[in-house]
Amino acid sequence: MRKIGIGLIGTGFMGTSHARAWKAAAALSGDLQPVPIGVADIDGAAAEQAARQFGFLRWTTDWRTLIDDPEIDVISITSPNRFHAEQALAAIAAGKHVHCEKPLAPDGDTAERMHRAAERAGVLTQVGFNYVKNPLLKLARQMIADGELGEITGFRGIHAEDFMADPQIPWSWRLDPSGGAGAVADLGSHILGMARFLLGPVSELFADLETVVKARPAAAGSSRLKPVDVDDIARLTLRFARGCRGHIEANWVATGRKMQLGFEVIGTQGALSFNQERFNELKYFRCGGDSGKTGFMTLGAGPEHAPYGLFCPAPGHQLGFNDLKTIEMLEFLQSIRQGQTQGPDFKEAFEIQRLVDAAVRSSRERRWVTL
């Protein structure tokens, strides 16, 4: 059995998710065994707690310690967006494989530099678009590719949550323009990536970006307001290279919504509908048959939709968010084993960032932007 050392940067929500996923992947990964070596966080107490909780051999407040550690083969980056490039480029220069959370970089130029550096170094990369690891999303893509929907005529996508809906939520790293755009990058990158996963490249787009909450408290409980310079809502019209068109909304002030990441793909012979709030179900409409008995049927996730069977032998018992993250890590380990990316890698993340940049430019210049 070959062991592969893991170094984790960041212990927040995504850092904890990565730590759990690597630990779960160790029980399923076969001959390539991930070993938690080191964890870094600027908060020493948080780093120490994560090391104790998830079995890392050591912890540090300096992420560079992980880069220099010869026992670490993979760096998992879950720090705020503006740190991704520096940390990933350092890991690449040290010859380590890199898993980085999305969005990969504040802008496309930086994302391309990261992608090119990894290519030159010959290291494997992956970016945290874990929702496309859903077995039912892979089924949807295969159904589209096999022509089961006929000619695709439209796409509607949305990623809406309400974690920024309250205007009293204080200013944070999410609103720092040095880390990139707002909702269009944070949430929009997921649904844009999902659209590409299902239908391929986008050739043109027109976007309208809106900042709903113009200023927020500088800190929790502060009466001093700090201006918000990034978007809360992004509305995009798309033209896909394959010929169809579509609409996308990214919204982090969508009151009442916790995880409305979903799409509809419409074709001449059928349609698919998906909502992350019920992500073990894919809705499928097929043209033809008795007009009095028509409608969407529900396709439920089960062992026949690999790799569901690794987690549960029974259909309908459902995967969870952390299972998708575990699948993501398992596929990254398989990429390393085979020496070939399964994606979404830095190159795909760069293409998604190009769309985010184009949306920002389109909204600012009030025009269609060609990719």
Describe this structure in words.
This protein is an alpha/beta fold and 371 residues long. 32% of the residues lie in helices and 26% in strands. It has 10 helices and 17 strands. The strands form 3 sheets. The protein has a 9-stranded mixed β-sheet with strand order 16-15-14-13-7-12-11-8-17. Strand 4, helix 4 and strand 5 form a beta-alpha-beta unit. The longest helix is centred in the last third of the chain and has 20 residues. It is globular. It starts with a strand and ends with a strand. The mean pLDDT is 97.
Key structural traits:
alpha/beta, 6-stranded parallel β-sheet, 26% strand, 10 helices, 371 residues, 9-stranded mixed β-sheet, 32% helix
Number of separate helices: 10
| SS-based class | alpha/beta
Strand tally is 17
Uncertain stretches of 5 or more adjacent residues: none
Radius of gyration over C-alpha positions, nearest whole angstrom: 21 Å
Main beta sheet, described? 9 strands, mixed
Distance between the termini: 45 Å
General form = globular
Q: In what range is the share of β-strand residues?
A: 25-35%
| Secondary structure: helix percent | 25-40%
